[in-house]
C-alpha cells in the first residue's frame, strides 16, 4: 500500500535534515544560544554526519552526495561571513563539516556491510 510513496518517504528525512541545517547555519548571531567552547564544532560534525546518513538513505549517489555536501559546507561558511547575520565564516568549521560527512559515509558503509 505504501509502495507508491516509498521514494518520497525515504527522501523526507534528508529534506528535513537539510531544512534543519539551513536554520542552524543561517540563524542570526542574536538567535544563537550561548554554549561551552567547542560545542559548535560538535554540532557541525553531527549535523553533517546526519546529512550524509540521511542522504544515503534517500539513495543519493555517493559521489553526488560527497561533492554536494562538501560544497554546502564551504558555501555555508562563506555565506556566514558575507551575509548580515552577525556571524563569521570559519575554515575550521568547514573542515569539521567535511569530517562529519566522512563520518556519516563511514557509518552508512559499516551498516551496509553489517547487513550483508
From TrEMBL:
<feature type="transmembrane region" description="Helical">
    <location>
        <begin position="91"/>
        <end position="111"/>
    </location>
</feature>
<feature type="transmembrane region" description="Helical">
    <location>
        <begin position="65"/>
        <end position="85"/>
    </location>
</feature>
<feature type="transmembrane region" description="Helical">
    <location>
        <begin position="41"/>
        <end position="58"/>
    </location>
</feature>
<keyword id="KW-0472">Membrane</keyword>
<keyword id="KW-1133">Transmembrane helix</keyword>
<protein>
    <submittedName>
        <fullName>VanZ like protein</fullName>
    </submittedName>
</protein>
<dbReference type="InterPro" id="IPR006976">
    <property type="entry name" value="VanZ-like"/>
</dbReference>
<feature type="domain" description="VanZ-like">
    <location>
        <begin position="39"/>
        <end position="108"/>
    </location>
</feature>
<keyword id="KW-0812">Transmembrane</keyword>
<dbReference type="Pfam" id="PF04892">
    <property type="entry name" value="VanZ"/>
</dbReference>
Amino acid at each position: 500500500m505504501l509502495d507508491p510513496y516509498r521514494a518520497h518517504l525515504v527522501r523526507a528525512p534528508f529534506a528535513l535534515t537539510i531544512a534543519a541545517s539551513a536554520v542552524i547555519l543561517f540563524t542570526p548571531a542574536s538567535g544563537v544560544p550561548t554554549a561551552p567552547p567547542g560545542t559548535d564544532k560538535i554540532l557541525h560534525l553531527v549535523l553533517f554526519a546526519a546529512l550524509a546518513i540521511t542522504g544515503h538513505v534517500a539513495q543519493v549517489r555517493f559521489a553526488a552526495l560527497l561533492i554536494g555536501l562538501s560544497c554546502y559546507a564551504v558555501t555555508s561558511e562563506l555565506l556566514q561571513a558575507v551575509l548580515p547575520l552577525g556571524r563569521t565564516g570559519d575554515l575550521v568549521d568547514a573542515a569539521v563539516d567535511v569530517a562529519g560527512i566522512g563520518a556519516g559515509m563511514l557509518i552508512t558503509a559499516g551498516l551496509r556491510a553489517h547487513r550483508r
